[in-house]
Design brief:
Layout lengths: L8 H7 L1 H8 L26 E6 L5 E7 L8 E5 L4 H4 L5 E5 L10 H5 L1 H4 L6 E5 L20 H16 L9 E6 L1 H12 L6 E5 L7 H17 L14 H7 L12 E7 L7 H23 L5 E5 L7 H14 L4
Helix pairs in contact: 1-2, 1-8, 2-8
Length: 334
Amino acid sequence: MSAHHLTRRNVLKATGGLSTAIALGSAGVLATASPAGASPAGAVGDGFGLRIVDRNEQNPRLKYYRFATRAIGWNPGINVLLPDGYDTSGRTYPVLYLLHWGNLNVDFTSFDRAGVREWTAGKPIIVVMPDGGHAGWYSDPVSSNVGPRNWETFHMDQLVPWIDANFRTYAEGNGRAVAGFSMGGFGALKYAAKYHDRFASVSAHSGPASLRRDFGLVTHWANLSSAVSDLAGGTIYGAPLWNEAKVSADNPVENIERYRGKRVFLVAGTGGGKVDWFNQVSENQVLAGQREFRGMLRDAGIEHEAHEEPGGHEFRIPVFLRDLDGIIERLRKA
């Protein structure tokens, strides 16, 4: 898949698309799912609940790890991209957590396959790219029929402290940023608000910012895509009735004050060009939600940077490069 056109089309096809999400309301077969596996206390391996089961550290910049963790019912992987000269510099670096989009052929390696090593060459920042499931939505689901898929617990309770313990990072909010594309853009907005003290910068590249607008379209979308792709009928937010407290806790537009003092970077497509209808319907919803979010930030007097670009639901590398420079400028310097 081209790095200039990373789309969510396949996962939407798998779930029947937006029209199916509206029609079904995440009901029907989803209602049979069992409660999601809780993240139990106690460590697997080290004090962070992680045990390395595979690794490759031969490349001077890109390090790969795979973990056993009770938060996830299989062994998720991560890539850690180090700045040039990390091994000899002795310096401490800020960290960007870069969250991937949703699709059946997408995982923690997808940004590397798209070109992130080239994009970050010479930049004084560590980039952490974790697994987030085919449609994990950076959440601990309400229900699962395949065992635990607690991505939020894995990332926030286990991975962040593990990274700070194993690499020369600034283990503080001013030393961390979170960004992502599509599902990952939503995850970035969610994590930055819900874990307010952990991130100084948040970036959503075509990431949904409103879960309840248009009769909860994005919430239905999350439920259906997760049910089909990850949870064997389980859901992120519950079906046929939502866990309303969970929706509100995750919903960027319901947590506006928690973005105050952060660097906030948003981008969405406006259509035009060779954009097929399916791609455009997806981005229309993203654009509408981001505009709602931006209006609320503006009304609250919270600074943010927003871009509307031609095209559909795609990852725009030139915009990401601009964003990356802003991230590095905002974070504590290496």
